[in-house]
Each structure stands twice: as structure tokens, then as C-alpha cells.
């Protein structure tokens, strides 16, 4: 069935925010590569490695890469999914199962966002810093966890509502995962 609903403005707003977050995630990957190349070059060319590189990467950049990419990954159905039974299930049951699953996911990830926010507030107020060569503040990492998890929660809640609406109305309002690709890739098991 084709989508018959009016434009989904919450989805459009979330997609816009997710594009910004995934762009920041991509920039963080680029920054990781540049810092590692600079560190290796400094280590082997002039015997002066960057003493702060691993702390920067581990405390900030990897957190940004992971948590800012989560919502966009969910939007594009890029997480691991087990879809053995999907073709055999009634559509209303699939929508119900997905709605329940997304609702529980939203609850779990909302708790992560909440804890990230609480830790951000405490760390910022106390001026907490990591114990390293450069005393980086800890609050940016907690803020990234809170932001990424909050948008992931919003995406899960949106999916919950849309799957429930699809189940109740019988119309395809929710964005369903694409079917699995089962065709052999060139050179793979070819005879």
C-alpha cells in the first residue's frame, strides 16, 4: 500500500535535526582521522607524540560519533533486524509488534538521555575534569549522550505513534523496514 497520509511534519523536523547530528558525527570521524595522523606523524617524525590525542578522541569524538549517529541510523532502518517471520505475519500484527518494541525502546533510551542530562548538569556545575595531560571538562561528553539519546527517543516515539495509527486505521502510515536483500552479489556464490 502507498502512504496516504498528509505530510508528516514531526518526521520532517526530526529528519532535519538528524541530518545535523549525523553531519557532526561525520565531522568527528574526520577529526579522529586527522588527530591520529598528526599523532603518528609527530611520534615517528619528531619523537613528540600528541599527549592529548587519545583523551580527546575517547572523551569527546567517539561519543559524538556514536550518539549523534544513532537517530539517523534508526531513521534509515540501518540497525540489525531479524525479519524471518515478517512476510508471514498479518500487517496489523507487524504494526502492533513494532509499536510495542519502539515504545519500550523509547522508555529505555529516555532513561539514558535523562541520566546523561543529570550527569551533564552535575559535571558542569562542579567543573569536573578528566585526570590527564590536558584537563578536559567532562560535561561535553554527557551533553552529547543526552542530546543523541533524546533525539533517538523522539524517533522511537514517532515510530510508536505511526505504527499504532497504521494498525488502528489499516492505512500504511508508518515507515516500514525495507525487505531483506537476498540476491547474490557478483562473485558471491556464483557458479
UniProtKB/TrEMBL annotation:
Compartments where found: Cell inner membrane
Protein's membrane topology: Multi-pass membrane protein
Stretches of the chain forming a coiled coil according to its record: none
Any GO BP: C4-dicarboxylate transport
Main localization, broad class: membrane
GO cellular component, one term: plasma membrane
All copies of domain Tripartite ATP-independent periplasmic transporters DctQ component, residue ranges: 32-161
Membrane-crossing segments per the record: 20-46, 52-71, 92-114, 139-157
Region listing for Disordered, in residue ranges: 172-191
Domain of life, per lineage: Bacteria
Pfam families listed in its UniProt record: DctQ
Listed GO MF terms: transmembrane transporter activity
Keywords for the protein's UniProt record, in alphabetical order: Cell inner membrane, Cell membrane, Membrane, Transmembrane, Transmembrane helix, Transport
Oligomeric form and interacting partners: The complex comprises the extracytoplasmic solute receptor protein and the two transmembrane proteins.
PANTHER family found in the cross-reference section: 2,3-DIKETO-L-GULONATE TRAP TRANSPORTER SMALL PERMEASE PROTEIN YIAM, TRAP TRANSPORTER SMALL PERMEASE PROTEIN
Family the entry assigns: Belongs to the TRAP transporter small permease family.
Summary of the function given for this chain in its UniProt record: Part of the tripartite ATP-independent periplasmic (TRAP) transport system.
Protein name according to UniProt: TRAP transporter small permease protein
Species the sequence originates in: Haematobacter genomosp. 1
